[in-house]
Specification:
Layout lengths: L7 E5 L6 H13 L3 E6 L4 E3 L5 E3 L2 E2 L10 E4 L3 H7 L3 H12 L4 E4 L4 H6 L6 E2 L6 H6 L3 E2 L4 E4 L2 E4 L5 H14 L8
Parallel strand pairs: 1-2, 1-6, 2-5, 6-7, 7-11, 8-9
Antiparallel strand pairs: 3-4, 10-11
Helix pairs in contact: 1-6
Length: 182
């Protein structure tokens, strides 16, 4: 089993996230010993599309990638659409790539990566409806369960969560990747 003791993992989401795409990776990283931190443009709690409520620990406007070892971006159409329009959330996401830190993204969560301008030249997967957006942003989109490209872990849907969670934990354990492009 991979151990993440001492690692801090940011989860970035707002209302409308896909519940399992937050809770499964959250459980995976905390079970491996990491501290999970909920970051959101909202304060108080955020609520998933199926009712899971998660207390917000840090507002996106006050969050700094410097304070974390990795980032996880759950999906959910409403969540992903709102996050990509939030300048603080986009900045926070972009900074993980600038610092070469691992990022896990699943389903519609990849929309924010197009806003952040961090997918050019990368291979990625997502929910199929994002394929054109990701290709237009310069990515190579593939239809695979999980894809790892220089610290960026991506998956398509909740059915891919077991493979996604395993790879996210593995990439966080490996730490920063010097080959990432900002």
């Amino acid at each position: 089993m991979t151990h993440l003791t001492g690692k801090r993992v940011a989860f970035l989401a707002t209302d409308g996230f896909e519940d399992s795409e937050l809770t499964s990776p959250w459980d995976a990283v905390t079970s491996a010993g990491a501290t999970a931190v909920m970051v959101s443009p909202l304060q108080g709690d955020v609520t998933g599309k199926n009712g899971h409520r998660q207390p917000v620990d840090v507002r996106a406007s006050e969050a700094s990638a410097d304070r974390f070892d990795a980032l996880v971006l759950p999906g959910g159409v409403v969540n992903a659409d709102h996050l990509r329009l939030d300048d603080d959330a986009v900045r926070f996401t972009r900074d993980f790539f600038a610092q070469h830190k691992p990022v896990g993204v699943i389903c519609h969560g990849a929309w924010i990566l197009t806003e952040a301008g961090v997918v050019e030249g990368r291979t990625i997967t997502s929910y199929p409806s994002l394929a054109t957006d990701l290709r237009n942003a310069g990515a190579t989109w593939v239809d695979e369960e999980v894809v790892v490209d220089q610290g960026l872990v991506s998956s398509r849907t909740p059915k891919d969560l077991p493979a996604f969670c395993d790879k996210v934990v593995e990439e966080i354990a490996e730490g920063p990747h010097s080959g990432q492009t900002a």
